[in-house]
Write a structure and sequence with these properties.
The structure holds 2 protein chains of 2 kinds.
Chain A: H1 3-9, E1 13-16, E2 27-30, H2 34-37, E3 45-49, H3 54-62, E4 67-70, H4 78-86, E5 90-93, H5 98-107, E6 111-112
Parallel strand pairs in A: 2-3, 2-6, 3-4, 4-5
Antiparallel strand pairs in A: 1-5
Chain B: E1 2-8, H1 17-28, H2 33-53, E2 56-63, E3 67-75, H3 82-85, H4 95-99, H5 107-114, E4 117-123, E5 127-135
Antiparallel strand pairs in B: 1-2, 2-3, 3-5, 4-5
Helix pairs in contact in B: 1-2, 2-5
Classes of the chains: A alpha/beta, B alpha+beta.
């Protein structure tokens, strides 16, 4: 699924990051616990989280992730957006809950990492 | 090459800065991405542990062509029962730490699974020393 399709389905907004037309997301992992995110060996997934602070972006950086989706209508701080930008992370926000966001994306064909 | 960082307990905004600098250095050195990920995940968890539990600490990252050796020495309450602390899911983290997305009791487990060699020793009331070795070749 393309980032544009994801953003459209979730009524989301892209806050920063370069999106290529060919970029596709196939896998997602949803969690507010960053240590759980850090247990995932692969790096080809989008992190969906309600945790809107520096550590959610730091975790994406350490995990080598390209996409972070912050749910529940949270507004990331300027420092978070700058850190995401510095690391080439596409930061997206959407107004829905973690459950609803995950449900919409799962129904649309995105897969869990396990 | 040796990199040294001073870490302040309770400074959650800066937590991860040292790990980020080590990550950038390893990338510049052209180290394999899967090795870098193992190093920085182990280091990041250990760095967050200092911020979450200790008063202050020092991280030393020694990088040579064969391995990355990380040494984290903190001054803090220490760990009374390391075996218990290593149990997945066990945590003594504060509410503040949990609000930062940590304190799930997976930190030491995550460090251990990414390290080739992992040593931890602690003196309750004094502090904890963690040593992590990850082979590059």
């Amino acid at each position: 699924m393309t980032i544009s399709e994801i953003v459209s389905l979730l009524r989301g907004t892209v806050l920063c990051g370069k999106i290529d037309e060919d970029d596709r997301v196939e896998y997602c992992f949803a969690s507010d616990l960053m240590s759980d995110v850090l247990t995932v060996c692969r790096s080809d997934f989008m992190l969906i989280t309600g945790l809107s602070n520096m550590q959610s972006i730091r975790t994406a950086e350490m995990s080598d992730l390209k996409y972070v989706l912050i749910v529940r209508g949270k507004t990331p701080t300027r420092e978070m957006v700058e850190l995401a930008e510095d690391n080439g992370i596409v930061l997206i926000v959407c107004p829905y809950s973690l459950f609803k966001t995950s449900g919409i994306l799962y129904k649309a064909g995105l897969k869990g990492v396990y | 090459m040796e990199l040294t960082f001073q870490i302040q307990g309770g400074d959650f905004t800066s937590a991860g800065t040292a790990s980020s600098k080590v990550r950038r250095t390893l990338k510049e050195l052209g180290i394999d991405a899967s090795i870098i990920k193992r190093v920085v995940i182990a280091l990041y968890e250990a760095e967050v542990n200092i911020v979450a539990h200790a008063y202050k600490g020092q991280i030393t990252a020694s990088i040579d062509p064969e391995q990355v050796f990380l040494k984290l020495v903190d001054e803090g309450p220490g760990i009374a029962d390391i075996e218990k602390a290593m149990t997945p899911g066990f945590s003594t983290a504060s509410q503040q730490v949990r609000e930062m997305g940590f304190g799930a009791g997976m930190g030491l487990t995550n460090i251990c699974r990414n390290a080739d060699v992992f040593n931890i020793h602690s003196i309750p009331g004094t502090g904890t020393t963690v040593e992590i070795t990850i082979h590059i070749k």
